[in-house]
Specification:
alpha+beta, Creatine Amidinohydrolase, Chain A, domain 1, Creatine Amidinohydrolase, 2 domains, 5-stranded mixed sheet, 3-stranded antiparallel sheet
Length: about 475
């Protein structure tokens, strides 16, 4: 946790943006795996962490805007809890840790909210993403379960997005801590990867590092020779010489803040000329995007720059043809890069995505594209100092997509389908870094993580010689 004053200041900043009513923040509850007491690793709601710092279930937060009350809601632990879990802090102690003096038992919360409703006051809450939250709000506010999400407060969403988008110094330090754990994870994979291993051996090694230095992974590890599947969740394949291994993973620090890196490495420790040619196009797009990112520029324009570089590179190789700029405008590049350049990063690896992707990544000046590939860009808005984003261009050869587009005669003026036949077993390449937008430009967060062909091959040499 940060200091109590930080959480108090965050809530005060929120109050200054809201006009009236009662703000309700919900913590997450434990979620059972296969029976009630056998639960998944606990993860607190990110906005609750942001405003209260507590990573415990069974808590709620109330900000009464009309009465200027700041209340932490929950119950003291019972003796049964203490027997199983050891000595626990009281509600008053928990409240003090986040700069609050007023507490309330959970049993009193429904009546408090119902009284506010009777007085004609609005209950503001964020969009829910768990069924137990839907049921609880439905019961307390007497709203149909099916309508709970549509009654979420857009005013509160806008205020929370405005605050959480700009990272303060303590947040940047926490993200950098997560980045450094992520770097350890990726280096361990590079240093131990060799043909004959099974993917899960490397995935398990990385997850162990994430747990050793933080709270585990920030999202399920993506580590696969079938890198053409963007979020491939499987780790069952034996590593084969000549294949590429796409590794997309990050860590969550004890603070709850996340990192997100991707590297693509040759199983044999050496890129083939064919792999190197594609890899260097992705690397050029990654580095150009980082160089371009700065305050006042839209991330949409950075995305277009990166995708144009990819189209230019593939045109030089003969896999695309025609004008790369026009090809990118038309969305022909999306055969090879069907996703956006990046997303916001913070307490969520896709920061605040639960509040609505367009609420976070777009605004009145920048609207989401409806063109395949471009429309997958999660953040296109104008960049500001304090924003933390990912930069993750990629090139993928997805046989099923290539065959579909060829059958439909799609973008034939920009794509040479005949030459693509020899790339059906290539896989995919993605390179991703985390950046902080500064007053003058941006900087890459975390300790250096190899990404040039030469640097990756050098780091992998030890494993290949073992």
């Amino acid at each position: 946790m940060f200091t109590p004053e930080i959480y108090k200041q965050r809530r005060e900043a929120l109050m200054s943006q809201m006009k009236g009513g009662v703000v309700l923040f919900m913590s997450n509850n434990e979620a059972s795996m296969n029976y009630k007491s056998n639960v998944y690793r606990y993860r607190q709601d990110s906005s609750f962490i942001y405003f209260y710092g507590q990573q415990l279930s069974g808590l709620m937060g109330i900000i009464d805007l009309d009465r200027n009350r700041d209340i932490l809601v929950g119950d003291d632990y019972t003796m049964d809890d203490i027997i199983w879990m050891g000595p626990q802090p009281t509600m008053q102690e928990l409240a003090g840790q986040c700069g609050i003096t007023d507490t309330m038992p959970m049993a009193d919360l429904p009546a408090y909210l119902q009284r506010a409703q009777t007085e004609g006051r609005t209950i503001h809450y964020l969009p829910t993403y768990r069924d137990d939250q839907n049921l609880l709000i439905s019961e307390m506010l007497e709203i149909s379960v099916k309508k709970v999400r549509e009654h979420a407060s857009q005013i509160l969403v806008d205020a929370v997005v405005a605050l959480r988008s700009v990272k303060q110094l303590e947040e940047i330090a926490a993200i950098e801590e997560a980045c450094n754990i992520g770097v350890r994870m990726h280096k361990a994979v590079m240093e131990n990867c060799k043909a004959g291993m099974v993917e899960r051996e490397l995935a398990g090694l990385a997850e162990g590092i994430a747990l050793s230095y933080g709270q585990g992974v920030s999202f399920p590890v993506i580590l696969s020779q079938n890198g053409q599947t963007l979020h491939n969740p499987y780790h069952h394949l034996k590593l084969n010489k000549g294949r590429l291994l796409l590794v997309d993973m990050g860590a969550e620090a004890t603070s709850g803040y996340s990192s997100d890196y991707t590297r693509t490495i040759p199983v044999s420790g050496k890129f083939t000329d064919k792999q190197k040619a594609i890899y260097n196009i992705v690397l050029e797009a990654n580095e150009a995007a980082i160089k371009m990112a700065r305050p006042g520029i839209r991330y949409w324009d950075v995305h277009v720059k990166a995708t144009t570089i990819i189209a230019e590179g593939l045109t030089k190789l003969g896999l695309m043809k025609g004008d790369p700029i026009e090809a990118t405008k038309a969305g022909a590049h999306a055969l090879f890069m069907p996703h956006g350049l990046g997303h916001m990063l913070g307490l969520d690896v896709h920061d605040m995505e639960g509040l609505g992707e367009d609420n976070v990544g777009y605004d009145c000046q920048t609207k989401r594209s409806d063109i395949f590939g471009h429309r997958s860009l999660r953040c296109g808005r104008e960049l500001k100092p304090g924003f933390v984003l990912t930069v993750e261009p990629g090139i993928y050869f997805i046989p099923e997509l290539i065959q579909q587009w060829e059958k439909e005669g799609k973008h034939t003026e920009y794509i040479d389908y005949k030459k693509l036949k020899s790339y059906f077993n290539f896989g995919g390449i993605r390179i991703e870094d985390d950046i902080l937008i500064t007053e003058q430009g941006c900087r890459v967060l975390g300790k250096p993580l190899p990404k040039s062909v030469k640097a990756i091959e050098k780091l992998m040499k030890r494993a290949q010689e073992a």
